[in-house]
Hints:
By secondary structure, the chain is mainly alpha-helical. The protein folds into 4 domains: 13-182, no CATH class; 214-287, no CATH class; 306-364, no CATH class; 380-478, Multidrug-efflux Transporter Regulator, Chain: A, Domain 2 (Orthogonal Bundle), CATH 1.10.1660. Helix content is 45%, strand content 6%. It has a 3-stranded antiparallel β-sheet. Strands 8-10-9 form a 3-stranded antiparallel β-sheet. Strands 1-2 form a two-stranded antiparallel ribbon.
Amino acid sequence: MLLLDRPHPDELVSSALVRGCRHYLLPMGQVLNSGWTGEDRLFGASFLGFTPLVHLANLFNMGPRALLAGHTVLTFATAFSEREVWERAVDGALGDVHGGQALGAVIRSAIQGLPHRRFCRACVADDLRTKGESYWRLSHQLPGSLVCHVHGDTLVSTKLSIAGKGISYDLPQNCQGRPCVAGNIGDLWREVAARVAEFARRGLDQPVALPISYYRDIAVERGWLKPERDVDIGRLNAHVAAVLGKAGLAACDLIPEGNGSWPAMLLQARLKAPSGTLKHILMEQFLAAPAVDLSHKPRGMVARSRSDEDKTLAAAFRQVADGYAKRGQRAAVATLLKDAGCWGIYRHKKSSLPRLQRAVDAFRTSRNACRPLARQMLPVPGQGGMVANRSGLIDGGHLISGEEAASKLGMSPRELPVLHRKGRILATAYKGHRLWYPAFWFDGRVPPAALEAAFAGLAGRPFPEQWAALVKVWEAGRA
């Protein structure tokens, strides 16, 4: 087995592997498989995460927990997650190749909105002077890191993708790019970057458990809100943008808009669900600024004509729709109506709101409109309570194509749909109406006849119910 130099502090696992490849003049596949004798020689590989970490730790002659804690995005991404999510992610990351799906989900949540790799020119110069080569820093790739927390320089955004599979052998010294945000965004974002780096190196401590109404209590104590008063969301959104700066928020895709904005959600009377780590950091920075009373002040009942109300609601809807269009995002009509604050009145009085109806009809025909897709979460076979949608099951190899299923049975792919129609094998149409089949049906651990008999008793039920029931049959049979 090769022995690679250990990762530097704040260095990504992938960066240390790339340096090892360059030192030994070997391709990544040969380095990864060095001394690996397990069944799964195919590693889960991406810029922000590799699995199985247990074997990678051996390559660096260090413990897998230390590698996970100091050189992956897990500690940052799960800092405020539910404890069960954190435990599942840690256990999955320290498990086998298939268990790495949990780490993959964490990676996707951590890099949302970050398209390209970033580096600090001053850090690269220091590295070349002291080490002879540079490396990709973990803290520079995380949301909210727009400037280097050490040097204060704006980070450079390269053309190298931060997401997806595959590895580039380039290090920062080999890359060019441009500032990830235009202009000077102020010292506040250096403080944000420092907090991001702090959460990235917090180790495998359990997630931060905040009391309900945590941020609201702080806001009341510091004079942002009056007790027993709701927050004025419009003024809150505008003030957050003014305090934190629109340029920085836009670079993080976090400009607060509409009634469901992230600052409004965090200042609710009850904190219903954890938010991303960066949102907690930004709320912390916002509440540290000089306070302004943002309490909602009821103005009493004012008689308004329905025509004036229709005009106001239509303008609000168009403003929200224009915001989605500028960001290149698609959304359902219901989402826009809720963001514009007119969902309830539209549902019950749409016939008396012709202007709003015309605005809704115009959006439905635009390229930014989409229909809400049912997010059916299904149990992952053999993963102890983990769930995923159909796309996740396909990516994880739990749903396989008709061609692969037919090859396992030694028959033509055209024969499988016939078996499905006869109720002899489970299948689901997805991705271009292709049929996908459960991989556990063909692994030999449970006789196909037992699965077929159980499937026959589920005739007429929706696919999610059939899948869940057959997963239980398979798990009971293999035990």
